[in-house]
Amino acid sequence: RSSDLPACASLDSRKQGYGLTIQRQDAMQAMGINLAQDDAPSTSHYTFSADGAILGFFGEAFGDKSKVRRESDASGRFIHIPRQKLRARVVEQLRPGTIRWGSKLRSFECRRGAGVAVTLADGTTLDAALLVGSDGIFSTVRRQLAMPGDRLHYVGLVVVLGILDGSVPLTQRRIFETVDGTTRLYAMPFTPSSTMWQLSFPCSEEAARTLTKDAAALKAELLSRCRGWHDPIPALLADTPLDGMSGYPVYDREVLEPAVLRPGAGAGAGKPGLAGRPAPQDRVTLIGDAAHPMTPFKAQGANQALSDAVLLAEALVQGVREHGALAG
Hints:
seven-stranded mixed β-sheet
């Protein structure tokens, strides 16, 4: 039996989050989830210069397919969906009791031949065959693995996201992005009746940390950067309420090599005669942003996390079938 241990008190207690572009329909199908009814569709994508000149465009709207396609069909086209809606659809697929809300991880201990002992912040202890850290870019599981040289890398960018209630004409069934060589704004339907935007620009790490803690100062910076840009960008930014936007410095990491993740695994691990050595960490793994955080463009992090989950589940099923529940 598996258990999900989110730190938040409930699904609704988490911040709503922003929109995702779901690209891996095969991952959704493997989970038994159909997102077609939740899609805020777009059929074209335009790129503009700051003065509104068209730099490029593509999409279904420019081909014959768009004339006959029904919006309810799962055509394989990318799905635009609020992050919280995706969470809700995933939760719907879980057996009752799978999620233990409010379970903040304190520590874990790998036991030679006996899985992993997990301790929660409230003192609860759990014995598990496997611990999967899917706890984000600031992963507690990853930090406690204490891998040598492991650190976040600041990529030199600030990303700001916002949601504006009400439809913006330029984002009706359309994505657009505007660039000026330094600053980039990307906007898409969040729901059929609201718009999400993402704006990114270079910034020092210290300045980014300071700026993203002050919503009013952050908004003033965006308005200054995009003053004079084509419509509807100045109004889109100005009309977004402070509690409808947030920003953060962007980090990623070096590729995580298997030998770094499990330095104690390999030939001889777990065999007699090694009692004095730490138990190998081959019963602890990482997926999603905990394993490979990415810059937040085109929902690559979310799509990779979904693919990770399906791949891991398939590997576990195969392992259990071939070797049994404990050894597999």
